[in-house]
Give the backbone structure.
Amino acid sequence: DDADATAEPKEAPGAPLTELYPEIEPYKQGYVRTRDGKHLLYYEECGNPDGKPALFLHGGPAGGLSPMYRRFFDPGFYRIVLLDQRGAGRSRPSASLESNTTWHLVDDLELLREHCMVDKWHVVLGGSWGSTLALAYSESFPEKVRSMVLRGVFLFDKEDMHWLFESGASAHFPDRWERFTSIIPPHERGSMLGAYYRRLTSDDRETQLEAAKRFVEWEMSISNLRPDFDVIKRELENVEFFLPFARAECHFFIHGGWLRPRQLLDDAVKIHRGTAVHIVHGRYDLVCRPKMAWDLHRAIPQSTIEFTWDSGHSTAETRTIDSIVRATDRFRDL
């Protein structure tokens, strides 16, 4: 088969790019208590209350929701459900690592589906860590997912974790890497993740905050092909954003996502062959390397993939937005 043909951008030369749908406010906001009683999860619904149910999964983990995420879906067609995962955004307790693993979050998605009285998600959209969670959920409950859009795929491969936080991306961003490592004494730099995890789980609040800022700054500064440092500066003034993000991401990385090596690839056979899957990945993504997206594409025979040629990792880049919205529009016809 001509596999390469599926990876090229789909827009015709000179064609206008698809944009986000207009800004929209939720028609419903609420909280649901997790089954273990440890967390209170914030969720919201937008769009058409009688529409096909769409689920959005944010990255991070614990990256939290943004109003922008509501706009990847046709609000006239979709009933759009968005969730702040454990420890993230408006969910409580904020930045908590207690009972916060991949499999707790998978169970939370099934709880949310039941709470919202959804029989099957028409589409699940997840980016970065959200793509990981979407895969774990669809492999655990394949009959509950009709289609998926996966952006900036991350599979918790040991090599890719090493690339991001030990050696790899550092060679492309030596100035940013030097800033990231500067708060860690040389004798601790044999494991940057370990060094940061000790600080992010410290009992000293100031130690946590300093480590969290540097941790998130490193990832945000390498996520866009053309980073907006004014935006990064603003985000790093919001402790409700950067502290949960850093603590949860480091927590999940230290524990390998509570996944076996290659688990998400090996278990892709559990995804129903009738489940439509579209993969979107920035050609120049140096946070989650494009090889992960390609490996996933080869593991899911019915999937399509698009490498957006002038994009990095961020969901906010123009051609990434274009590819995601075209996919959710296309899946209206399923």
Strands lie at 28-33, 40-47, 52-57, 78-83, 123-127, 147-151, 276-282, 304-308. The longest helix spans residues 205-221.
